[in-house]
Amino acid sequence: MPILDVQDLTTYYMTARGPVRAAEGVSFQLEKGEAMGLAGESGCGKTTVALSLLKILPTNGRIVRGKIIVDGKDIVPLKESEMRKNIRWRSVSMVFQGAMNALNPLYKIGDQIVEAIKLHEPDVTRQEAKDRTGKLFEMVGLEPSRTDNYPHEFSGGMKQRALIAMSLANNPHIVIADEPGTALDVIVQAQVLRLISELKERLNLSVIMIAHDLSMIAEVCQKIAIMYAGYMVENGDIVKIFKDPLHPYTQDLIESFPSIMADKQEMVSIPGFPPDLLDPPPGCRFHPRCKYAMDICRKETPHLLEVSANHRVACHLVKRK
Ligand code: SF4
Question: 229: CA distance to ligand 1 center in Å?
Fold first, then answer.
């Protein structure tokens, strides 16, 4: 049984102008100890999927359809109190985007982690939570004595390590890392990615890594899911998809990133813009930008089909295996 089974997840943001259809019919599975990257342009629905998994959407966000089965239990119908007690941070946690701003500047970093532990595990004493925080700091490569520091006393890389420590505070099985390399220089970014990989192996964690940079995903993940305008358009084994991307959007996305392995080549930008999700185009949402668009693409939404083992694509060009 997968540790996470997302089925037909559909999340909208309700606005005065109508619903913004941010995630539509998203389905995927994650096994224990597996890492999956979630990629796509800004506004494609990656963060909406992540916030839905924790049920921490903004007040106008609604999961309108679908199931999120964590450890065999659908969490969509759960009340807020049950999410806080049993799921959030205890089963699924998140390393929030933007290491520079995600910590409260007014409190010592160690105290912020102690509070997170006690919020989700009220039976743990303050001293036990402090001891656990010291061990977490060690685990992420920080001196335990630095728990008494304030965020402004940490570099960007150290803050990112502290946020990773915080995400592990309640021993979750699944960790979502939202753009963990943002605002870090490339050397520190590589160290943070190595740390995530090491922790994944050591703790047998399942990881969802959100990134617009495909090379970051390739460092950590065995699987990748590509999102476009709220839909998951291709997912599966990362080597297969990088070698033989079948969805035209995935092909364009891969071509728009430089490769240090391939011969020198010109990078290609994807023409056009993602659609307005208040009024998305009918059929395949990629059709206004797709060089292969056919009549059927303007009328019928393609669904994810398995094209080979561990490789699914949603495109009318692609036939079932
Ligand atoms: Fe292009 Fe049609 Fe495939 Fe959409 S369904 S990606 S428009 S070929």
Answer: 13
